[in-house]
Structures are given as C-alpha cells and as structure tokens.
Amino acid sequence: MPSENIQWFPGHMAKTRRMISENLKNVDIVIEILDARIPYSSRNPEITRLTEGKPTLLLLNKASLADPAQNRRWQEVYTKGETYCLLTDCVTGEGLNKLAPMIREILAEKLRRYEEKGMHGRRVRAMVLGIPNVGKSSLINRICGNKKTKVENRPGVTLDKQWVSTGIGVDLLDMPGILWPKFEEKRVGENLALTGAIRDGILDIETLATVLCKRLRTLYPELLAARYKLGDLSAYDDYSDFELFEAIGKKRGFLISGGEINTERTAITLLDEFRACKIGRITLDRYSKEEVRRA
Question: Is 94 a domain residue?
C-alpha cells in the first residue's frame, strides 16, 4: 500500500510546478478541481501553496458519485476567504451553468477596473488545476461543447499546458495533473488509488480492494451489505477486512478450482463497482472538525 515515503514521478511533477509558477501571472483566477468522493485527499497542498494569493474557485467534481450530505458539508468548509466552491459533474452537467456567473462574481472588482480603463469585453483567463483523473479535460470539453482536449479514464493523459477558448467568456489554461512528491498520510495515498488517481498497476489490487472493504464496512455498511447480499453485516463482526473481502467473492460465485476464491476477479469487481457508483453514492473523506482543521 502507499506509504508516507512513496514518491510519484518527481521529475514530471517538478516541471508542472514550474509551469504553474511561470503562468500564474497570466491568469485572473485559478479553478482547482477536486474529486467529490475524496475532497480532502484530492486537494494537493502543493497547489494551494503555489497559487497562494490568487482568487480560487474549487470545483467538487464527480458530485453525482458522492454522498449528497457530505457534498454540502465540504462545500461549506471550502468556501472561505478568497476561495469559493461549487458542486459540479461533467457527466450530468450539474453546476456547470453556475461556473461563469461565479467566476464573474469573484472577479467583480477586477472586471470593473477593466471597464473603467476601456477594456470592454475583456475575456477572463483561468488556470485549471487538479490531481490526475479528477476530470479537468472532461470539464473543459463539456464547457466548450465539443472535443477540445484528450480525455481518457486514466491518470496522466494531459502532459503539457494548453489554452482553450470557451463560449462563456473565459479562456482556460489546462495544466497537467499534479501529485505531490510524497504523501504525508497513508490514507491519502490509499484514497487516491481507490478512485483511480494513481495507476492501478502501481499497487496490489487485492490489498487495495481490502482497504475499500474496510472503508465501506465503517462508513457505508448498509450499502455494502445490500450490494453484495451480505444480510446483517453484524454477522461479519469477527471477520477481518480480508475475510470480508473473500466473503464478497464467495457471494458473487467468484470461485476457482478447489473452491478457492478468485481474489483478483473479486478485487477488480469491487473497485470497478465503487468507481461506477454501483455500490452507491460514497464519500471516503468524511467531513468532521478534524477535517476542518486540516482543510
């Protein structure tokens, strides 16, 4: 499993950090995209440090996959000072109609000064940032109404910056996804892996699926029991997380010769169904006073 000492592509990330610093002066606002399922784990503290002092609009993206109550709570905690927060979803279109009005509200004073100088209709320039696979390119394509940037459901597709003009009066500077050089918290690395921000091949898939079982039995036991027909989950109180993971494989009939559980197939199914929202709307970072202090 990911640990505090694991580092991810430090050379590539250093290049992205330099690009952010060099281009920040060319934009009016930063749009930072988070994964609503992991609103704490997907907020890179490097981005916060690099963009300090620049007005920021946080988007809790993939909101339709996350717990609605947690969405509202995280939106509240992330709206403070020069930072604002919207719930968005590139698949359903949720919140995207609020994007341009919110940007203009945040920049109202700056835009007024432009008008006074005779710079009528000046387009707003925004830098789009976030960790890999949070939906930066999907968001841009949805706003543009056609395919402007390459989109794949895997991290690391956007490798260089690119300017994109939109029909909402905002020019977007799409930047590569940036992970931090190392994770200070093991849980953060695990959550990034669970949502696909880190390539699946890097981590042992059975171990990762067992971590998911641990999260779900604690946070969403009813959803876990219902999806995998486990009945009363208290019957599994004496099971370890791995034994519960195996029980799910058995319930699904994922057996190989000799009656053993096909753990690889079980792990793939669990992760795929979590990411596709088939288990339910789930948020792995729970809002609490502790999270508020760290936000």
Answer: yes
Cα–Cα dist 235/167, whole Å: 56
Please state the pTM of the whole predicted model. Answer: 0.86
Which residue is it, tokens 């979803």?
A: 89
Rounded-to-10 torsion of CA 187, 89, 138, 33: -50
DSSP tag of 233: G
Tokens of 40: 């704490």
CATH number of the structural domain spanning residue 47: 3.40.50.300
| Per-residue model confidence as pLDDT tens for the chain (295 residues) | 333 333 344 456 778 888 899 999 999 999 999 999 999 999 988 898 999 889 999 999 999 999 999 999 999 999 988 889 999 998 899 999 999 999 999 999 988 988 888 777 778 999 999 988 898 888 888 888 765 554 444 444 445 678 888 888 899 998 888 877 677 788 998 999 999 988 766 679 999 999 999 999 999 999 999 999 999 999 999 999 999 999 999 999 999 988 899 999 999 999 999 999 999 999 999 887 555 444 4
Number of domains composing the chain: 2
Q: Is there a single domain that holds both residue 82 and residue 218?
A: no
Instruction: List strands edge to edge, sheet with 56-61.
Output: 83-87, 56-61, 29-35, 124-130, 170-174, 162-165
